[in-house]
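Checklist before submission:
- one chain only
- standard amino acids only
- sequence pasted in full

Submission:
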Amino acid sequence: MAIIDTQSVPCIGVRGPRGSDGAKKLVGRKRVALVDAEGHILARAVEPANVQDRDTLAALDDGKEQWPSLSLAILDGAITAERCREWCHIPGMRHRVVEKEPDQTGVVVLERRWVVERTFGWLGHWGGLLRERAGRLDVATSRLARLASLMAARALNNLA
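Returned file contents:
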């Protein structure tokens, strides 16, 4: 099972690509994460914040190919375009969109989506990634990869 979501974070005044996310009212970047059922990061990418959620899936193509055993993708309600169904169309993979009911208000825990939100929280706690500081997108993505490896190593250490 794979859970996919995005997180918009503010960007300090650095050179490099960044954009304005109108829904969150911030200027910065958007982190895209593909996590497993336990919250371990399988693929990650960083895009300017003005990129729509449905357009960020292409950044996860390499991660999808590295995990051919994925059988179910749980997506955010903002990721419902036709290209998203095509992205999930690999042999044996299904997708399900999980979103709030129209009558629900406030903070609602959505089925399995809390896992990726918890992972984003870990990134802020572990690596101080509450803001984006890197000037280039590849450097920002590699910082996410470094933290993902540290989190995985700690999980393995706790099992022993």
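Reviewer check: The radius of gyration is 16 Å.
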